[in-house]
Amino acid sequence: MRELRVQLWFSPEDRREVGVLAEDRGRVWYQHDAAFAAGDLEISPVRLPRAHADLVEHRPTAGAPIPGVFNDARPEGWGLKLLHRAFQARGRAASSVSPLDELAFLGHRTMGALVFEPCTGPPGDLADAVELAALAAHAQAVWDDSLRTVLPALLRAGGPSGGARPKALIGLPVGGGPGFRFGEGELPPGWEAWLVKFPTRTDDADVGRREAAWMAMAAAAGIDVPQVRVLPLEGIDDAFAVRRFDRPGAGRRLHVLSAAGALDADFRVPGADYEHLLRATARICAGDMSQVLAMYRLAVFNVASVNHDDHLKNVAWLASPDGGWRVAPGFDLTYAPRPYGERWTSVVGEGRDVGRHHLLELARRAGIKPDAAARVIREVTDATGEVRSFLQEAECEGPVSVEAAAAVLRATEDLRA
Length: 417
Description:
Elements: E1 2-11, E2 14-24, E3 27-32, H1 34-37, E4 56-58, H2 68-71, H3 78-89, H4 99-106, E5 114-117, H5 132-143, H6 152-158, E6 167-173, E7 181-182, E8 191-197, H7 207-220, E9 228-233, E10 236-243, E11 255-258, H8 259-263, H9 274-284, H10 289-304, E12 316-319, E13 325-327, H11 356-366, H12 370-384, H13 387-393, H14 399-415
Antiparallel strand pairs: 1-2, 1-5, 2-3, 3-4, 6-7, 6-8, 8-10, 9-10, 11-12, 12-13
Helix pairs in contact: 7-13, 9-10, 10-11, 10-12, 11-12
């Protein structure tokens, strides 16, 4: 049997025992720490509430081999590829690596505030500088499968991350000065934690700048978004960088729960609906209608901006040390049409031709007043109606960006009264 101690590290001074996660021959159990169960903080209010103080056996599924809240701490996509390469270098086949092995390897270098002990991964000097362009070039080669050996620097920077595209966790100077550091752990004063997405050979030249344009457009639509930057890399197209909202600074961390983690769902299988997300928001955020409205605004923006990649890993909530929950800032917001126009998350059952009446019906089912829903739709479409200005400001002039602008204007017109 393998056991991991689960802790929450909100800051160097605020570290809490959460429970024990165990695995034996394909069976998985979890039990809350007694003191944690008696407290006020939830780590997963829907699927793993504190009221379940006894030992709980988890039934593994394709989307949640371990309880979803802990599955969130595992890398997926790009990060998982790097992690399995590291195990292969140690003589372990990927098929022999369990989810608990992966969590133990990451240990304290996880995204969010959950950490796992004992840690089996390699230690690192968190103050090391990093050459970002060289890291990006190496990431491209690994992504292309033209290299089997992963440099330790890329494993450190990319191992904890998720998503399909190559990326790295780095530190940037406060105020936008020069230089880069590894950012998967605690950073020295004067540095902030960022996530950088590297372009690949299959991307168009605008891909990073276009995501920056979408984030600016989302902010204009009233969505809370993190700070972003476009980083020119010598010999490589521009990279998109976003300030990490799970690392507010000064050694602090926030607990992040994705919709997939909250619902123990497989984000790779379409089937979720925004009605589920609005109801989950009401429950997780203790009925706070301002947070339900924030989730509704995100739904409207994703429809208007033709972001069909709105799967359950791209929506999340944040918990603060006092136990309060809120909708996480918007992330992975960009032009992302899917084949046949079918979005990952439907709106009251409609996944392809979502119109104004679908969004108004979604609001009705969530208890949002009609005038509030209409105001959100108006504010969002006012912003997306200026999509060409946002793309021009970001210097996006390629054919994909031209196509994106036309698609967004069509979707925006469909939502206007």
